[in-house]
# Entry
Amino acid sequence: MRILLVEDDAEVARFVRKGLMEAGHTVEHAVNGRDGLFMAASEQFDVLVLDRMLPGGVDGVRLVETLRGQGNRTPVLFLSALNAVDERVKGLKAGGDDYLTKPFAFAELLARVEALGRRPAAEVPTTRLKVADLELDLLSRTVTRGGKKIDVQPREFRLLEHLMRHAGQVVTRTMLLEKVWDYHFDPQTNVIDVHVSRLRHKLDKGFEKPLIHTVRNAGYMIRAD
Amino acid sequence: MVLWWNTAGALDRQVEAAIRADATALQERRRAGDIAALVAAVEDRLAVDVQNEALYLLLTAEGRRLAGNLSTWPTEANAESPWIRIPLQRDGAVSEARLLRVDLGDGHRLLVGRDVAEKLRLRGLLSEGIAWAASASAALAVLGAWLLRRALENRLRPIYRTAAAIGTGDLTRRVPLSERGDEFDKLGATMNAMLDRIAQLMEGVRGVSDAIAHDLRTPIARARAKLEEALVSAQDEEALRAAVEQGIADLDGIARVFKAVLRIAEVEAGARRAAFAPIDLAPVLTDMAELYGASAEAQDQHLEAELDETLPLVGDRDLLAQAVVNLLDNALKFTPEGGTVRLAAHRLDDVLEIAVADDGPGMPPADRQRAGERFFRADSARTTPGSGLGLSLVRAVATLHGGEVALSDTHPGAERPGLTVTLRLPAS
# Structure
């Protein structure tokens, strides 16, 4: 993916840029809001990663508002040292798609950026999701693996649906709490892990190959191999 | 000016009105009879004029005097305007006359007027009086303003002295109040209340910074020590890598505590009302019970939920969820294997009661007082993981929603009384 990073802190920028490039993405970097806005408006990007507070008169929120005003729908992830939840609401209201508070784990950033960059595919109406021999029917709300029906609870179904929509991508615990449960707070304990491991147990029982993988220090990923 | 116009001006107008009335009457007389009647009328008027103010002059077309007490026709009387004002020499005194020229139409010429010396004198007296009165009231006003200002200054001085002292950093000062209970006392009392609140907030900030200094410095020191040790004595890359990973985990822990402290401060400052909306707490609590149910089961505990169908209130959904999660977290942490945690929520009139009850060791009454202070951890809880911030946030969230938190025994009198935390929030 082609990613624009607008971040004034040199160290954070270097770290994020290096990480994203190692993950196979192309990264352009602007150090202030004005340059960032110019680049975002004149070139094509898959995802914009914006610091919420930027020097140069154009801060992250203004930048997004301007872009959205021009009809530019490129997904935006805000990075912010502002912890306040109202700030998150403000950022999302301005047209941001996701919000990550500093300090953050790089894995969390990468997972969110990749989820944003591939989002359009998920918006195409589909009725079936398939990963290896695992199939999820969104209409009848049934799960089958290798032709065998697996009983899951409604929440587990949504959890699995989210993982499968992002098959091959890392999904973090916080992302799961946000997308599957629709709550925005820090799950301090391992509550999410318990749900995932329960689901994993149901899916993998009697099968040789595990489908849901734990990505160390990051989250979970469902993939075929 | 208005006063002058009303009095002195009225005198003038009164004279003119009298002259005009007199002139009209004489004209009527002429119209009704011959010139001799007019002469008689003028002479009659002069005869009854005891104040010796009336002035008349009636001339024939040729300029011969027929009647009147004016000796000659003044040249001013030939001017355009019928009204004239001439100086007058009478009885050796200088005076002034106001005259009206009346055209009789048959060539006869008539002047009707009044000697206005008396009126002029009266007017002078009036003007003088008004001038004196004006200067006296101006002087009084200045004096009054000065006195009022001094009085105001005297009453306000303690207030601005206090404000100045506080401005320089002495937060212990308060505005002294008089017994009068007037507006100034009200202002002082309001200021004092504000200062008390500020002092309380400052105290809170100081408490937080002490707590941060203590409870964050320790884990930072620990993480630093571990990293330094690894740098010096790690045998191989594997050990170094493990140490770095541990260091990151430690830092994440510190960041999490930091975030929680900030979140509590934010909630306590009441700055988070923006996300307030009418919500139903029942599905939120169901979600939380479901979210934590799996964890409880994995630890062989039971999580039972007993909820009313709807629990309406105005509040912040995420904050309330976080508060309930903190309570469930605590409860599960202190409940033994096979134990039960109960989440109950009911509406009692206009209050929602959300209670989380556990089977744990409970909390001695002495600790309950302090539970909810930031970083406070009962000695019995020292060995379990946690930051001592969970209940602080619950308390702050309850306060933000205009509610309160109460701690009690789940099984009073039992050996393991357990702990029940009850959140009471105003329903909508």
Observations:
- The domain at 2-124 of chain B is CATH 3.30.450.20 (Beta-Lactamase).
- The first helix of chain B runs from residue 2 to 32.
- Residues 301 and 338 of chain B are 5 Å apart (CA to CA).
